[in-house]
Design brief:
The complex is a heterodimer of chains A (about 290) and B (about 180). With about 290 residues, chain A is an alpha+beta fold. In chain A, helix 2 crosses helix 7 and helix 3 crosses helix 7. The relative contact order of chain A is 0.19. With about 180 residues, chain B is α+β, with helices and mostly antiparallel strands. Chain B has one domain. Chain B has a five-stranded antiparallel β-sheet with strand order 6-5-4-7-8. In chain B, strand 1 and strand 2 form a beta hairpin. Strand 2 of chain A pairs antiparallel with strand 4 of chain B. Bound molecules: zinc ion. Zinc ion binds next to loops of chain B.
């Protein structure tokens, strides 16, 4: 089965995009009349996460910088040629305090595709197939005010059991993963996800990112295509592209972004207003 | 040249593009919006399990009971988290910049998304105490918003509160 995604945002004006993204993730009766947008939502989540975990704005910016370092190794990334520093992120235009322009994802045109088949068949048609070893999903809310876990510093309590289910189904654990393909769209969501992976004390993900552990060459390579913030936001295609990137990594096709000897990884994606989560554990071998 | 005129010239948009989006009440939320017109914050209270649902829904989101009553909220809340919007918002909100959107925890339990008014952004603190104010968005459409508890508020705001209280047949309490 051929699975395809393609998106062309450039056909819409900036204004149409602003209006669409205000309404797409926000409740028309209870949020839109207050001037809510995706950026406003992400900004509130960032403010709360920082206030209640003690994460610094520099650490939040660090997520964008780590993403950019990966994107700099990706020929298809929107920002492949531009480097980024924490100072640049913090000094970029304030969009919605504490969120600066470089903390917001960038809409992009793009497409990606993969071929899906049974494990049996895969060996016949491909010399290095990648296997779906485990997967789990859960739904939290339509609006953040009704999220299953209400505290922004404890969102990992919603995400972690889902990741755990995917690990268990694969018969693997967090430390077996060679890559963590985390889709956040905004840096704070990446931090909340990282809190749930079983590799760091919840609330300490900012420090983990700051240490360089999630950047190229680090112990926990994370989001190796740079995702929505540096690869480009193609709508539902972001999670899709990250999934394809994970497969490429495990096939040894990731070029300059290649993580040496990568065998297993965990990938996540989620949708509008951060309402749900889907974890998938992939491997280029079936663990015995 | 006003900001709006500049934008109209630059983007080719019209006054219509600046019209604020209004909440469109559903059958089960209509009493809430009727309440705000009268200067009261109404919450839907389940007669079966006691859950207070906000936003109000057709049935109780905890026990699915349809037996509910509307109770008047205390109008007290605390600030859970916030954002100070300053750029890139839809046209109807451009003239309001900067404005604060926030997650607000009502004393009765529910969390609400709203705006904080009457407070300089740098004065915002997580956990600060808030009180409800009512702001007329359009004729007969009134949004509950929040300001620091005990804040003075502007003259216009006080005047508006007085009018609302008059509609209720009450005298507005002295602010502060
Ligand atoms: Zn109930």
């Amino acid at each position: 089965m051929l699975v395809i995604h393609a998106q062309r945002f450039s056909q819409f004006s900036a204004n149409e995009q602003a209006a669409y993204f205000a309404h797409a993730g926000s409740d028309l009766e209870w949020e839109v009349p207050y001037g809510m947008t995706y950026n406003a939502l992400a900004a509130m989540m960032t403010q709360g996460y920082m206030a209640y975990t003690g994460t610094t704005l520099e650490q939040v910016a660090g997520v964008c910088v780590a993403c950019r370092k990966w994107a700099n190794r990706q020929p298809n990334a929107m920002f492949r040629d531009k480097t980024l520093t924490v100072e640049q992120v913090l000094n970029s235009r304030m969009v919605a305090y504490p969120l600066t322009a470089y903390m917001c994802n960038v809409l992009a045109d793009g497409g990606c595709a993969y071929v899906m088949t049974t494990a049996e068949n895969a060996k016949k048609v491909c010399k290095n197939p990648v296997y779906v070893l485990g997967e789990a999903s859960d739904y939290s809310h339509r609006s953040i005010i009704k999220s299953k876990v209400r505290d922004l510093d404890r969102m990992h309590e919603f995400y972690a059991p889902v990741a755990q289910k995917a690990y268990e189904q694969a018969g693997l654990g967090p430390e077996d993963m060679d890559i963590y393909e985390i889709y956040g769209a905004y840096p704070v969501v990446s931090l909340m996800m990282a809190d749930a992976l079983g590799i760091v004390e919840p609330g300490q993900s900012g420090a983990l990112v700051e240490s360089g552990a999630t950047s190229p060459g680090g112990k926990y390579p994370m989001t190796t295509n740079g995702e929505a913030m540096s690869f480009g936001h193609t709508g539902t295609g972001v999670g899709f592209a990250l999934f394809v990137e994970g497969v490429r990594q495990l096939q040894g096709k990731a070029g300059k972004a290649q993580v040496e000897d990568a065998r297993f990884l965990i990938d996540d994606c989620g949708g509008g207003a951060f309402m749900d989560v889907h974890f998938t554990v992939l491997g280029n071998q079936i663990p015995s | 040249m006003s900001l709006r005129d500049t934008l109209k010239e630059k983007l080719g948009c019209t006054d219509e593009d600046f019209v604020k989006p209004l909440p469109h009440p559903t059958k089960w939320s209509a009493p809430f919006w009727e309440g705000t017109k009268q200067g009261t914050l109404l919450l839907k209270h389940c007669r079966n399990c006691g859950t207070i649902d906000h936003p109000p829904y057709l049935y109780c989101t905890n026990c699915s009971s349809e037996e509910a009553e509307w109770v008047e909220a205390s109008g007290k809340a605390t600030l859970y988290a916030y954002a100070v919007n300053s750029y890139g918002v839809p046209l109807p909100f451009v003239e309001d910049l900067p404005y604060v959107t926030a997650l607000i925890d009502l004393a009765e339990g529910p969390r609400m998304i709203s705006n904080i008014v009457g407070c300089a952004p740098e004065e915002l603190r997580n956990g600060m105490e808030l009180e409800v104010v009512f702001e007329e968005l359009a004729p007969n459409v009134v949004l509950p918003k929040w300001r620091p508890a005990g804040a003075e508020g502007s003259d216009m705001e006080r005047e508006y509160q007085r009018v609302l209280y008059e509609r209720k047949g009450m005298t507005a309490p002295p602010s502060g």
